[in-house]
Amino acid sequence: MSHFTTIQVKITEGEVLREALQSLGYTVLCQTHVRGFAGGRTQADYVIRQNNGYDLGFRKAGATYELVADFWGAKINQQHFIDQVTQTYTHKLLRATVDAQGFDVLEEQTLEDGTVRVVVGKWV
To answer: Which residues contact 22 (CB under 8 A, 6 or more apart)?
Structure first.
């Protein structure tokens, strides 16, 4: 019996996701199994191993990624984890887009509520 749950996340760029997870301090394995209850496994593109034997994985599902894990055993705050990953991913994607389009980051600040404010500009 599978205990795995999947949660859709608004993430489309796998390499940016990997970079975001690494910048959050996670070691990321690629193209491997997510471990769950009673030796259960499921495939994922990016996997964070946990010492408790219950991993967190992201796998491509159509145009976006989904988070897959046995959350009962993973013992993480799902919403906090998703919020943290999504914010870091969005920030990294923004920086990559800004660079690719020839803009410069003029100012960047983290507000009291955790919001990141980025001001960009381009000299023409």
So the answer is: 28
* 44 CB burial (10 A radius; 0-12, 13-18, 19+): buried
Structural domains in the chain, sorted by start: 5-121 (3.30.310)
Q: What is the pTM of this model?
A: 0.88
pLDDT in tens, the chain (124 residues): 568 999 999 999 999 999 999 999 999 999 999 999 999 999 999 999 999 999 999 999 999 999 999 999 999 999 999 999 999 999 999 999 999 999 998 999 989 988 889 999 988 7
Q: Exposed e or buried b for every residue in 9-28, given b needs 16+ CB within 10 A?
A: bebeeeebbbbbbeeeebeb
